[in-house]
Amino acid sequence: MKKNLLLLVFFFSNSVDLFGKRPFPLYESPRLQGFGGAGTALVEGEDAIFYNPSQINSKKGHQLISIVSPTITFTTIRPEEAVQTATAHSSYSNVKNITERFNLFKKGNVFLGAQNHTGFILDHSAFGILGTMQRNLHMDDGDGKPLTQESIDNLRYDFETMYDLSTYFGASRTFFTNFDVGFLARFVYTLSQSLTKTVAGVEDTKDINTSNNTLDLATEKSGLGIGGDLGVTYHLPNDNADITLAAVAQNVLALHYFGPNKPANVPMALNFGFGYKRDLFRSEQNFLIAIDVKDILSQHEPYFLTKLHMGVMWRYSDLISLSTGINQGYPTFGFGLAYKFIEFQFAHYAVELSRTGKSRPSKRNSLLLRLGWLF
Fold it and tell me: Distance between terminal CA atoms of the chain?
């Protein structure tokens, strides 16, 4: 019971990706993760603030007050492993339990994340506070290759935790009827802690705890950062559907940190998207298709497949949504339910961890519960 309570406190304490790699964007929406991560051309409401600020209040006349919207993201692992990952701070200083966890870690990584957003969309402007935390546990053979039981030349064990607390202001405007422009400015405080433990001369898991050839590298960085996003969306003239082309520059000229022991600046990511939305039978039902190509400048993702995001969604008013898609080459699924001031979202998806072009997915589930008002 005590461990479960600690895990709950961890999740909702408000809380970026493996080896410091930032997701797109800092805020992750289960609705859009189930949609293949295609969040550039077809976004609205809370999602638009962080994915494409030109679509802030894209539903004309709709105002949003999001009191709390906590999100939990986790890899598909056994519950007892999740509790250990969330609460066992001893992972910083020893490898005592590595052998026991070998069969879990050799498949990729353990990931736990939480975020909470409190914000307002009034007229064509938005402002609020976002807190995020992400924790990664990862193991490989020292060269970035997956572990095998039979042969381990060098074993590397990475543990990373990162906290972000940010405040933001954004606004959008429409020009020439079909052209939307928007921006988002944010101030963020980041604290990152990491430990890399390397054990050399390991030929089998039984040697992990007995090897004297170990090297620990622990780092902690923190700083205040200033950054912003720019978004533009063009709605093609069409009487039967909403066809959009969009471009978003996230972290324009980089997210800059300040301080004596500051984290590394986050480079700009340039994303392009295509969206198609059409009413089905009645205007309450919508059919959506979206395709994104993210990080065109290859600041974060060096391979085309990891830049590609595609999704299909059916939606009945604001009440029910079902979606599927392809995120970085892996299938996704999601659904959402909303009624008055309560909304629930779920997504199952995968993130590519490999930076060498090899397939190494981290399969994740994401849950969101929002309390607020849409009027």
Answer: 40
E strands present in 55-209: 64-68, 71-75, 109-122, 125-140, 154-175, 179-200
> Rounded to an integer, what distance in angstroms lies between the CA atom of residue 275 and that of residue 8?
38
Percentage of residues of the chain with pLDDT beyond 90: 40
Nearest residue to 293 (alpha-carbon basis) of 83, 82, 37, 87: 37
pLDDT surpassing 80 at residue 10: no
How many C-beta atoms surround the C-beta of residue 210 within 10 A? Answer: 8
As a whole number of angstroms, the distance between CA 374 and CA 27 comes to: 20
* Cβ neighbours of residue 210 closer than 8 Å, sequence gap 6 or more: none
In 3-state terms the chain splits into helix, strand, coil percentages (rounded to 5) of 15, 55, 30
Q: How many other C-beta atoms are found inside a 10 Å radius of the C-beta of residue 7?
A: 18
Please, are residues 192 and 161 in contact by the beta-carbon 8 Å criterion?
yes
- DSSP for 243-299 reads EEEEEEEESTT-BEEESTTPPPPBPPEEEEEEEEEEEESEEEEEEEEEEEE--TT-S
Among candidates 330, 306, 364, which has minimal Cα distance to 24? 306
The structural domains of the chain, ordered by start, are 2-374 (2.40.160)
Those residues with Cβ within 8 angstroms of residue 300's Cβ, 6 or more apart along the chain or in another chain: 21, 22, 24, 267, 269
DSSP state for residue 32 in the 8-state scheme: H
Q: Write the single-letter amino acid at 278.
A: R
Is the pTM for the entire model greater than 0.85? no
What integer pLDDT is reported at residue 249 of this predicted model? 95
Tokens of 20: 């410091």
Instruction: Band the pLDDT of 17: cuts 50, 70, 90.
Output: very low
Q: Hey, is 184 helix, strand or coil?
A: strand
**The two three-digit tokens of residue 224, written as one number:** 């205040």
CA angle 150, 154, 155 (to 5 degrees): 85
Which helix (H) or strand (E) element contains residue 49?
A: helix 45-51
Collapsed DSSP state (helix, strand, coil) of residue 56: coil
Length of the chain: 375
Tens-place pLDDT, residues 157-192: 677 888 999 999 999 999 988 999 999 999 999 998
Q: Calculate helix-pair angle for 2-11, 79-87, nearest 10 degrees.
A: 70
